[in-house]
Amino acid sequence: MTEILVQDVVGGGIATADRVVDHPAWTELKSAVEEIRPWQSKDGAIDFDAEGAPSRALAEDAVERVARAVERLSPLLPHDASYHAALVADLRKWADSAFDVPDFLDSLLAFHPAADRVDGLQHLVVFPMYTQNGNPDRNLEAVVLRMVWPEWLADLERTRYDNPLFCGITFEDFTAGYDTHSAVLFPETIAVREAPERFTWGGIFCDREAARFRAVTGEAVRVLGLELPDDIRAMVEDQERCQQAFVLWDMVHDRTHSHGDLPFDPFMIKQRQPFWMYGLEELRCDLTAFKEAVRLEAEGNAHGRDVQYAVLFDRMFRFPVSGDRNRNYDGLGGQLLFAYLHKHDVVRWTDNKLTIDWQRAPEVTNQLCGEIEALYRDGIDRPKLVHWFKAYELVSAYLAPHPGSRWAKGPDALDLSQQPRKLVDDVLADEFPLSMFYEALSKKLKAVIASTQGITAERHEGAAA
């Protein structure tokens, strides 16, 4: 990324353009964090009685090196001064607790990246946390990132897609927890003594999403013999264009979780539901972003068409064949989109080649969005269990359920005297198995999907070269 001077709008000064990752203290900080991570238990604590555990003095020395490195780097980032001061205090408090379960609530409450969304602004972030789709344990992690907030995106957020908590971000460097498939930085993953009343930010690494999209889509296009329009081929080959598409897609997707006719808690934090309900919610948000992209393209916005094909290709090519088959709700959403477009003759698999009706794709994709929106709107007047069955009917109209499914046999096959949440136990881990098409595609794309672990724009370009 080009180095630029950025205004520190909070402090009124100038934030340096010097890259944090070029400072010797970053190397020292990263090394100390990597030293600490293997010592930690799943909850982030260090058990000094465990095999291979360090002495307490050794652990204290490593954490102190992290704290001192943060203090040396903080002057490069005056907009994060309060956070870094609280971070150093939390690190030393953790050491004083004999490395019990870490509690970094004070530093979390001091970190407010969404309040200072300036394009190119750097942040140094250190927290004990798990990385979604990456490391499930709450290990200490460090990441240097930059904000992605171009004026055109800021204008859309200000005038049409209000999302004051959203942060588009890119990697500068990271510790092992991010050398994975994780592409998010979420406050709810951080080890704290109690959850804050509300979270004030959420970050998505659009550079990783774009690089992964380009790698997987490029291979899928080759394997499937798909002929792309010139402008879409140019987009897939252009990292910057893809990053811009993903940051817009993510911003609209994120806000959609709390917009629309919602018959339930949009984030479903306190609910236990069949995994197809989560799949439909994520797909609804993606298809809403698609629908908005169609509108933007009609208005002459250059990013609108890019977002449409980022959604289509990522959903159809990567989502169904990524991860395992245990309640894979994102995979389900991708399968549903492909099956819907196939049933409506927008995609065809003939003579071992995939073709897409580029003219009809926007209309029919929006049609699926409309069906899901109608399900939600009608769901407001339905009991929970009836709503789940209606959602199952929508999905199973396009995807074949597992032959052994109880849910596929209808209400008479279930013990309806139980609470709805108990009936979730009757849902198969792979309620809607992959079609023969996706079984074959999964084998073809397995290697390239695995290769995207830890991918960044620089790593993708380096591998391509």
Describe what this molecule looks like in 3D.
- With 465 residues, this protein is of the alpha+beta class.
- The protein folds into two domains: 6-200, no CATH class; 247-464, no CATH class.
- The protein has 16 helices and nine strands.
- It has helices at residues 24-36, 56-73, 81-96, 105-110, 151-159, 206-224, 230-236, 239-256, 275-298, 304-318, 329-343, 361-379, 384-396, 420-423, 436-451, 457-464, and strands at 6-7, 14-15, 122-129, 139-148, 166-174, 184-185, 202-205, 347-350, 353-356.
- Strands 3-4-5-7-6 form a five-stranded mixed β-sheet. A two-stranded antiparallel sheet has the order 1-2.
- A hairpin with a 6-residue loop joins strand 1 (6-7) and strand 2.
- Helix 9 (275-298) packs antiparallel against helix 10 (304-318).
- The chain is globular and about 65 Å long.
- Residues 1-15 have low confidence and may be disordered.
List keywords for this structure.
465 residues, alpha+beta, 2 domains, globular
Helix-strand layout with pairing:
Blueprint: E1 6-7, E2 14-15, H1 24-36, H2 56-73, H3 81-96, H4 105-110, E3 122-129, E4 139-148, H5 151-159, E5 166-174, E6 184-185, E7 202-205, H6 206-224, H7 230-236, H8 239-256, H9 275-298, H10 304-318, H11 329-343, E8 347-350, E9 353-356, H12 361-379, H13 384-396, H14 420-423, H15 436-451, H16 457-464
Parallel strand pairs: 5-7
Antiparallel strand pairs: 1-2, 3-4, 4-5, 6-7, 8-9
Helix pairs in contact: 1-2, 2-3, 6-8, 6-10, 6-15, 8-9, 8-10, 9-10, 9-11, 9-12, 10-11, 12-13
